[in-house]
Design a protein that fits this description.
Elements lengths: L9 H4 L2 H5 L1 H12 L7 E6 L7 E6 L3 H6 L12 E5 L3 E7 L8 E5 L3 E8 L2 E8 L4 E11 L2 E8 L12
Antiparallel strand pairs: 1-2, 3-4, 4-9, 5-6, 6-7, 8-9
Amino acid sequence: MVGARKRKDFFEDFGSELFDNLEEMIDALLDEMGESSPFVYGFSIIHRPGEDPEIREFGNVSESSQEEGDFVSPEAKEPLIDVFETDETVQVLAEFPEAEKEDVCLRATASSLEIMVSGLSGSYSENVELPVPVDPKSAKASYKNGVLEVTFRRYLEEGPITIDIE
């Protein structure tokens, strides 16, 4: 072919030195962390109409370890817990990626849900205040792939009733 030019690989000259030592850097970081369980850190943002956004942190990295750059997991885990409500139900979602179904224990009242998790990597307990009264006997719970889902029927007060006088 006349006039055909050999195409140069885009990545040939671009940042090859950036990737040369990547594996060594990762190995050094893992050695520095030692034999610890994985760390989890993140945040969720909930923005409801007419309200300011709510930013919540979650994970098993304490604030002091974030400042010091030490990401070794503490014994107690801080999972992400969200509460959603509809006209008929209240749903609680919680993430426990290291727990088994048998490790989770739940107790409910009309106004709160107590979640207790015990297992190989420590224990966790949280009392979740529910936004509206619920019927605790209506609770349906499932646990799949590290996600706990508990759904309650809202306790709906009936309107005023007429009382006959005898």
